[in-house]
Amino acid sequence: MPGAAVRPYRELLEMEPGHIEGRLHLARLLDRLEEAPEAVEVLSEGLRRSPDQTEFLVLRGAILGRLQRYREAELDLRRALRLHPSHGPAQFELGLLLWRRGLVQEAAACFHRALEFQPDNGKTYYYLGDALNQQGDLSGARAALQRAIQVSPDDAKTYHLMGRVLDRMRLPEEAQDMYRRGRELARL
């Protein structure tokens, strides 16, 4: 029934094409319904009406990144950051885009900046930990993942990554404990 779910937002935008929250809700819903290209079009129309709307730029950049349209995504995210340099979600999404492209050092820098504005974001700590692990900074990765576990204690994949980091640090008993905790959470 995706049509029924999106209908109220479409009707709202027909009556009020400049309704920012309605457009954001519709784009997020379309994205969740795996209609990403349509979500991009909804956001693009919003940007034609409001070219400096940061939330449109960040969401469109995030969706374009998942669609592997990296150049367009990066342009949107960097533009959002020019408009609002302290926008934590834009910093995170740019970091995630760079991480996907294998640019882990640059990604880690973005994740660090994102955490300045959103210090309790477990997802950002997770990706920072992964980027640092890939760079060989095992103590930095461990610290980031410990913080991720503190703020998001129910994320099984964080425990698994922490186990991998601890294995690389030659701490097998601690690693096994992390793997076990991750498996337990994955079963819930």
Task: Write structural notes for this entry.
The protein folds into 2 domains: 1-84, Tetratricopeptide repeat domain (Serine Threonine Protein Phosphatase 5, Tetratricopeptide repeat), CATH 1.25.40; 103-188, Tetratricopeptide repeat domain (Serine Threonine Protein Phosphatase 5, Tetratricopeptide repeat, Alpha Horseshoe). 81% of the residues lie in helices and 0% in strands. The protein has 11 helices and no strands.
The coarse overall form would be elongated
Q: Which secondary-structure class do the elements indicate?
A: mainly alpha
Q: Helices and strands, in N-to-C order?
A: HHHHHHHHHHH
At the fourth level of CATH, the homologous superfamily of the largest domain is: Tetratricopeptide repeat domain
Short description:
The protein is mainly α and 188 residues long.
List keywords for this structure.
single chain, 188 residues, mainly alpha, Serine Threonine Protein Phosphatase 5, Tetratricopeptide repeat, 2 domains, 11 helices, elongated
Topology:
Layout (H helix, E strand, L loop, with lengths): L1 H14 L4 H13 L3 H14 L4 H13 L3 H14 L4 H13 L3 H14 L4 H14 L2 H14 L4 H13 L3 H16 L1
